[in-house]
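Budget justification aside, the reviewers requested a transparent look at the raw inputs and outputs of the sequence design task funded under Objective 1. We therefore reproduce one unedited record. The lines immediately below are the structure tokens for a 322-residue chain.
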């Protein structure tokens, strides 16, 4: 039976995260979750009921959250620090930099309601800076799962990691994008579709729109590659280079500012390798985000299937005119 990416809708990545974490905690008493008044929004209420001794609530105090997590990790605990991404990576940035990364404590930082998941709450609650600021800090892995399967594998992989990791999740139910036997490896992207005209390199909740863009362009006679770049740091440089060598144009897509995220990471790889390929970053421009639901914001900034398809066609048409 063939598998069609996106044909079936799964659950929210947050729900899958919480269930996977509970399974790990039930198998290992050293697993602990720490929340900043966010067990509800982090889907951790069942976790708290099942293993209450393995959950710590610090209240709305993100700096304390990270400090306590670092202390527990230094004592051998497998710690998942769970907090809204916008606050975790802004209010507690100094603690992430010094207590976690500089001190090399293997804390698993979980940014929930990331990107523009908070929708109408506006720019104060949108996390479109988190990847940029953490990319600039040494000694941290950054993972942005695109579906339930990537989420499960990322959480299990994080449990085994001996260095800090940041994983971000949105709030919407996510389509299943991979066959069940798909291999997941931190630092290695997943090729969802082959193609030689356009390459869409996407991460997190923009991977599905990239697939829809590829399907739309296929109807117009274009062959499109789609790559799920679930690990932003370390970046899968080989996948980026292959896309530049084998495709006519590249569009990156991310639920993040166009400054400092996936797109700029890919651009740096290509520029330093002196690869000449039409290239465009699709994301949130340098402005305060428009107010609306996540889907309305995606539509506004062209992060839908049709929007990404238009970006790709325009990119190639402009190249042909040159």
């Amino acid at each position: 039976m063939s598998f069609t990416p996106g044909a079936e809708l799964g659950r929210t990545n947050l729900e899958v995260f919480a269930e996977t974490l509970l399974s790990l905690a039930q198998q290992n008493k050293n697993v602990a979750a720490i929340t900043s008044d966010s067990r509800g929004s982090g889907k951790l209420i069942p976790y708290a009921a099942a293993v209450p001794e393995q959950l710590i609530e610090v209240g709305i105090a993100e700096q304390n959250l990270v400090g306590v997590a670092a202390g527990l990790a230094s004592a051998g605990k497998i710690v998942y620090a769970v907090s809204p991404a916008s606050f975790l990576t802004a209010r507690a940035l100094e603690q992430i930099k010094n207590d976690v990364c500089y001190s090399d404590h293997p804390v698993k930082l979980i940014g929930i309601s990331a990107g523009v998941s908070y929708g109408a709450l506006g720019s104060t609650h949108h996390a479109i800076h988190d990847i940029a600021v953490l990319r600039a800090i040494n000694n941290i892995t950054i993972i942005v799962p695109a579906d339930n399967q990537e989420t499960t594998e990322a959480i299990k992989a994080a449990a085994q990691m001996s260095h800090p990791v940041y994983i971000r999740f949105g709030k919407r139910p996510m389509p299943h994008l991979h066959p069940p036997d798909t291999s997941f490896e931190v630092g290695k992207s997943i090729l969802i579709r082959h193609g030689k005209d356009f390459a869409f390199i996407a991460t997190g909740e923009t991977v599905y729109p990239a697939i829809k863009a590829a399907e739309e362009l296929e109807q117009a006679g274009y062959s499109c590659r789609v790559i799920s770049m679930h690990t932003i740091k370390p970046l899968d440089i080989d996948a980026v280079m292959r896309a530049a060598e084998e495709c006519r144009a590249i569009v990156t897509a991310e639920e993040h500012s166009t400054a400092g995220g996936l797109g700029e990471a890919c651009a740096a790889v290509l520029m330093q390798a002196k690869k000449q390929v039409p290239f465009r970053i699709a994301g949130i421009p340098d402005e305060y985000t428009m107010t609306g639901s996540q889907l309305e914001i995606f539509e506004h900034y062209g992060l839908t299937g049709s929007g990404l398809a238009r970006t790709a066609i325009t990119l190639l048409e402009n190249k042909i005119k040159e």
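The longest strand covers residues 249-257. Residues 190-321 form a domain with the Rossmann fold fold (CATH 3.40.50.920). Computational costs for records of this kind are itemized in the attached budget.
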